[in-house]
Amino acid sequence: MPQKYNISTKAAPPRFYPVGKYATIEFREDCAGSCKECVKKKCVYDIFKDNYLHMSQMDEPEYLYTCNSCFRCIQECTKGIFSRVVNPEYREIGDDYWTPDVLGRTWCQAHTGSVPVSGAGYRGPFAGKGFDSMWTDMSEIVRPTRDGIHGREYINTCIELSRRPERLTFNKDGSLAVEVKPILEIPLPILFQQPDFGVLSKKVLISMLKAAQTIGTKMFINAADVYENLMPFGPVIIPLVKKDTFQNYPTLLTRVDMVEIEYEPGIEKVFGALKAMNEELVISVGVSLRANLDYAAICVELSKADIDTIHVYADAHGREFESDNPRFIKDMLRDIHLALVDAGTRQQINIIASGGICMAEHVNKSIICGADGVAIDRPLLIAMECRLCDRCRKGLSCPVELESIDPAYGSNRIINLMGAWRNQMLEMLGAMGLREARRLRGEVGRSMWFEDLEKESFAPIFGERKVSIDVG
User: What is the pLDDT of residue 462?
Assistant: First the structure.
């Protein structure tokens, strides 16, 4: 019996002092010093124990982001000497989409490989922008699997990247009457993607590729950046080429099993030339989600050509490019998916979505909206302690020295993050009663959307909203 897919994690403590969210202030002069058992010893997360160990050994950093704000130390101290504070530096990292909370949770997962826990529960809004205006149906959570998400009732997370045949026909002797191409499959609906900014040294790229190789996924990377020392990762690499440049990489294209070519009018004419260079090559076409493009119609036309995957790109915040009123990727994915369903080609083609994927829940939500899988870039950098401080964009030094990261350490952090993400995906799939990620594709019945609920619940009473809420 084949071994079940699993991502093995190993703790990878941060190299630099992490920007923690919470800390406690002690007014020690008021400490009674006579309590039978100090509340510091009761901390279920051992925050004080770990921090005292660091102080005694002068060992940095202190893991302040592991404080889960349960308030036990504050509530149970007999003298009330504790106060919780938010680190001012924490408020300055990231931006309005890649928030400090996203960075902090990503660091924690990359460090421990575990699902983050919040002792104070969910403290955010119940409706917001983007994916936060969408909830998933957890009705099956009342009847979990017999022995957990890693038990006998296996939940399959694999997806295909190669084209699926429209139908199978058989000869009278039972043999296949149609040619079935080899199936290119990955065990996780997450691919990696070369970030469009940041410190992208050879060590950083190797860290990403080593992690992709270990967990069995692939990575989109500019063909011009595939140096000779990256060639051993050939099966992991998906080189990005253009209509006018793919012929410059004949050696590379014979060593990989998948390539992506950027969309432009007339791109269909070069698919044959790509296949001539490597007949087993799986072809993906990258389509930017721009306001001036009818991307749904473009995807329908591409689905009828001899390609395997369509890779749609939104910006880093998951929004439409070149638009004064950009739509969010979940809505654009829905349009593309339904257009392919109407054209009768959805079952043959694969859709990979990029842009705005910063948490594990966004993977499942993207699949619900119609994608087969997602590609991520910034989470890979954040896993390696990137603070999204934009110093590198200004030509300044990186505060966490990404350019000198050890690839073994960097890949370990990314593997930990993917292990934590996969466990969260499995929890969500199990709570929805699904045993396969592919079953979730386009299943909007497994979700609830703020915009629809508002219309159904409040429009009959208060009328239609005259000014739309920005949920993108």
Answer: 75
Phi-psi region of 244 (alpha: psi -120 to 50; beta: other; left: phi over 0): alpha
The DSSP result for 348-413, as a single string, is: T-EEEEESS--SHHHHHHHHHHT-SEEEESHHHHHHTT-----TGGGTPPPTT-GGG--HHHHHHH
Minimum mean pLDDT range among 83-92, 212-221, 228-237, 324-333: 83-92
CB 332 within 8 A of CB 340: no
**b/e sequence 230-258, b meaning 16+ C-beta within 10 Å:** beebeebbbbbbebeebeebeebbebbbb
* CB contact at 8 A, 103 and 388: yes
Interatomic CA distance for residues 357 and 377, integer angstroms = 9
Rounded-to-integer distance, Cα 255 and Cα 194, Å: 19
C-beta separation of 187 from 215 below 8 A: yes
**What angle do helix axes 202-215 and 407-431 make, rounded to 10 degrees?**
40
End-to-end, the C-alpha distance of the chain in Å comes to 46
H/E stretch holding 86: strand 82-86
The predicted-structure confidence for 381-427, as pLDDT tens digits, reads as follows 999 999 998 888 888 899 999 999 999 999 999 999 999 999 999 98
Q: Domains of the chain (ranges plus CATH)? A: 159-453 (3.20.20.70)
Task: Give counts: helices (H), strands (E), the chain.
Answer: 13, 14
Least confident of 12-21, 78-87, 137-146, 293-302: 137-146
